Amino acid sequence: xxxxHKQLIAxxxxxxxxxxxxxxxxxxxxxxxxxATVSTILAGNFQLISDDMFRRIEAQVSSPTDNQGWxxxxxxxxxxxxxxxxxxxxxRSVTWVVAQAGAGKTTxxxxxxxxxxxxxxxxxxxxxxxxxxxxxxxxxxxLRTDGLTLxxxxxxxxxxxxxxxxxxxxxxxxxxxxxxxxxxxxxxxNKVEDHCGIVFLSTDYIIHRINRGLRCKKPGYQEFYSRIGxxxxxxxxxxxxxxxxxxxxxxxSLSADIDQVMRDAEASDFDLRRxxxxxxxxxxxxx
Length: 287
Fold this sequence. Notes:
This protein is an alpha/beta fold. The chain has three domains: about 60 residues, no CATH class; about 150 residues, Rossmann fold; about 45 residues. Helix content is about 55%, strand content about 5%. A four-stranded parallel β-sheet has the order 1-4-3-2, sandwiched between helices. Helix 9 crosses helix 11 and helix 13 packs antiparallel against helix 14. The radius of gyration is 21 Å and the shape is flat.
């Protein structure tokens, strides 16, 4: 890894640190990175840090806009999801954003988190149990988790969040959370209501899941549904105009190439992952 690349990572790290109340809290939020390592890199002493450590840090602090060769375009879903995130952060509300796969939910959320203070992005998974759920929130907030019970971590998380000016927690792919973790969300919300914004992102599967839970009167579902305001935020779908703007921003200008990307987009319900692959394929055939 050359010096120029390390300098880029150091700038990314500095931006990441600026989103936290202190450098120490920012360091605590990084996996496998000590506070001393963060200080050393920010001081410019690169020779003391291994290339592997630089790569580990880059994976955690880089922004979607740092992906060279790909320009992010503010599509209609991008703008509307950004509005939902900003609204939840400003007014400390809870919102569940439902959009189709490939609409750009993850990219939008990660970019928003990289550009705003006190925003914490969590990618959920099916095997995330309650203890991991709590420890992941604690880590991202910048708290030590070693040696603390889950009850102690809850108290520390809540204390930290209510001290912040406008915190926002984003749970991506939130429909994968187990019911046990849903119940922990209710506990979290009851404590931080009016102090912290919360946004869930998922496909429309969550609508069917919650409706089924309500019909079967599963414990916690009625309360959970009430917490999200008994409605979902559903942005407009990606349009042909959005795809055209993506083509233009990423160097696709020939009519034949645009038509090819548009055909791929229409065949995949305007899945932006498919659009990106189509554009990548065209560039590869031109080199």
